[in-house]
Amino acid sequence: MGRLLAAIYDPFMAATERACLQQWRAALLADVAGRVLEIGAGTGQSLAHYPAAVQRLVLAEPDRSMRARLAKRIPAALVGRVEIIDSPGEHLPFAADSFDVVVSSLVLCTVPDPEATLAEVVRVLAPGGRLIFLEHVADDERPDRLRWQTRLEPLWKRLAGGCHLTRRTHETITAAGLQLEQLERASMRKANPLTRRSIRGVARKPS
Ligand SMILES: C[S@@+](CC[C@H](N)C(=O)[O-])C[C@H]1O[C@@H](n2cnc3c(N)ncnc32)[C@H](O)[C@@H]1O
Known about the structure:
Layout: H1 2-29, E1 34-39, E2 54-60, H2 64-71, E3 82-85, E4 99-105, H3 114-124, E5 125-136, H4 143-159, H5 169-175, E6 179-187, E7 197-204
Helix pairs in contact: 1-2
């Protein structure tokens, strides 16, 4: 994403975080416990919501400027249990079955290869482990908006660090072999209309 995008990310997202994202992050992470991996952790917008039951939290983030911001945001309650690593979702440096939970928020829109990333998520999750996701997606409920998403995606990708507007991420999640247990669709209030359609929920690796 680079220094500029890392610097403007939080101010750019502030209204949406206040309007809905912080509430959604808190609800999604409320019962997270054990060994947890967050991919594309960004500036650490989810960090405040990890419960004390988390034993180990690995924050994988390939962008150096994002990692610098992340390091400054580790909550005092988690110090000593958090590790920040330089790693893309497509190549996770962990053995199979290493984590109880993987968290992905607003990341599967950006990774160059979502199928490879989800294959890695499935590999590192223990049997019965959960992927917790919160993503913006193609607006299939609004054909007018979907047309604009499709038209503007090439430009948007260049301006927004590789972010795609028309991915159907819930389909990619199930195609990877994860079982959807919870799926909520909502409009991300205060977000740009191009990124407003969102999905969030839980998908489980079969035992
Ligand atoms: C839109 S930001 C979301 C940040 C954070 N997860 C959040 O919820 O605010 C997308 C993040 O994905 C990261 N990213 C880009 N390519 C990636 C990849 N191949 N694997 C994992 N993360 C990636 C970016 O560096 C950036 O931090």
